[in-house]
Structures are given as C-alpha cells and as structure tokens.
Amino acid sequence: MPRIVLDLETPRSFHDVGGYHNIHLLGVSLLGVYFYDTGEYKAYRVDDLPQFEDYLLANKPEMVGFNQIHFDLP
Asked: Mapping DSSP to helix (H, G, I), strand (E, B) and coil, where does residue 44 land?
C-alpha cells in the first residue's frame, strides 16, 4: 500500500470565519502531498483536486498528516 503525507492550506483563518465551529467556511487554497514511493512533493491547487481524487481512488494510499481527522479531512 502506498503511503502519502498530506498538508492542507486554507485561504482564511479561524478568526476570518468566526471560530472553529465554522471550519467548513475556511475553504481550500492548496493541498501539499509527499509521495513516499517516489520521493516526490506535489502541490494541488483547487482546480487540480479532481486529479488527486483520481489518484486516491486508484491507489488507496495510507494517509499521514497532522490533525487530519479534525482539520484536513473532517
């Protein structure tokens, strides 16, 4: 099983959206991914996310990250 590291960046802060309870309003500006199997780093802009989704469906990688459950992938 391939393994990747994810880091999601947002265009807004919690202060901008009125607090943590409005996490859904933060949006996505960039998704950074490190691919262990190739040693490659890749950045996905919002318009590129379907390409990353295709990768997820085809490879079903183990995803590593910081605070993914509560922030990056709620």
From this structure: strand
Cα–Cα distance measured from residue 15 to residue 34, given in angstroms and rounded to the nearest whole number: 29
Burial 20-34 (b: 16+ CB within 10 A, else e): eeeeeebeeeebebb
d(Cα 59, Cα 56) in Å, to the nearest integer?
Answer: 5
Which amino acid does the sequence have at 55? Y
Beta strand 30-35 with 40-45 is antiparallel
**Angstrom distance (rounded) from CA 72 to CA 21:** 14
Residue 65's pLDDT band (boundaries 50, 70, 90)?
confident
pLDDT in tens, 9-55: 999 999 999 998 998 899 999 999 999 999 999 999 999 999 999 99
